[in-house]
Each structure stands twice: as structure tokens, then as C-alpha cells.
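chain below, 209 aa
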Amino acid sequence: MARYRDANCKLCRREGMKLFLKGSRCVTDKCAFDRRGYAPGQHGETGRRKGSEYGFQLREKQKIRRIYGVLEKQFHNYFEKASRQKGVTGENLLVMLELRFDNLVYRFGFAPSRKAARQLIVHRHFTVNDKIVDIPSYQLKLHDIVRVRDNSRNLDLIHSALKDAGKGFDLAWIRLDKARMEGELLDRPKRLDIPTTVQEQMVVELYSK
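prediction:
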């Protein structure tokens, strides 16, 4: 399977904002974005390039894609599905990305980042409704319960992530039980309930060209 193998911090610098791709490191002095907030590359620091409408739309698409860690073809498939659903296409797109298994493992606080969540899922450390699921893109449904498997409850990565769970924002559409190490999807999130600073309408405009 294709994977991005270059430095994650380059993605934050390219998009001009923190994407929080490396968990707790992103809020420490070691964060590369804080030290070098300009875009990577030969002309990144000088910032000579002028923006265009297409360029801004493309950057917004790349930003969303990189936040959720999906490849180009996957992202386009999500958009096609979102456009066929009732409602606002941009909001449908974000909701589908939020309901991915790896994203919810991250939202529950079982992993410090979505990338770490994907690794834990592939290594079969979680169950959904008491069944092992090892597919990061699996779409959770209402009242699905995600639980850390019994033989994975002593993992330091999960415990250190749980210590920070709930800090920074509180999501009403999920429930976390730290004692039982389980989380439940209570409702489909609305756009105002999703703490992701993006302009999804620009993606709709981009694909509408």
C-alpha cells in the first residue's frame, strides 16, 4: 500500500499551519513549524509565489487530505460519495472522514496522532462491537463501541495518549470511558462539532471545475 514516507513536519510547513501529525511533539519546542514556519524548498523562506484561486483551492484540499492521512484516490472517492448524499457536499465529506476508524481512535484519545492510530489498528489492538477490525478506513456507525483489546491494555503508547484525552476540546458526539478503555460514537457530527479549521467549500469548488 502506498504511504507518505517523507518528514511529516514538511507537510505542516507547506500548508502554513500545524496539522498535529506528530502528537504531543507538535506542542513542544521541538516542533519544526515553530522553528521554521515557512514553506519547505529553495524559495520557501522568501515566499515569492503569488496565490491564485486554483492555488488556494488546491492547498485547502491538500490540507484536509493530509490532516486525515488519506491518499489522493481515496480522497476523491470520499468526495464522490459525499456529492451523492443529501445535504451539503463539503460537510458530508468532513463527516465521512471523521467517522473513519483511525480518526475516531485518535479522537477518543487512544493514540497521540492519526498516524499512530492507523498503526495500532493494523496491529489489531482494537475491537468494534467486540470484533477485531484492522482496517483504518472502516466507517463507524451510530453506537458502535471501540474497545482496547485485553492483551493491549498495557501499551505505553495508549496510556500516554489517554492522559491527554479530552484536553483542548470536548466532543459531544463521542463518549470515552477511560476506566474501561472504550469509546462510543453517540451521534453523527455536525460541521460546528468538528474541530478542524478548514474551508471545505473550496474543495467542492475545486472539483466542480
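The longest strand covers residues 145-148. The longest helix spans residues 53-68.
thats it, cya
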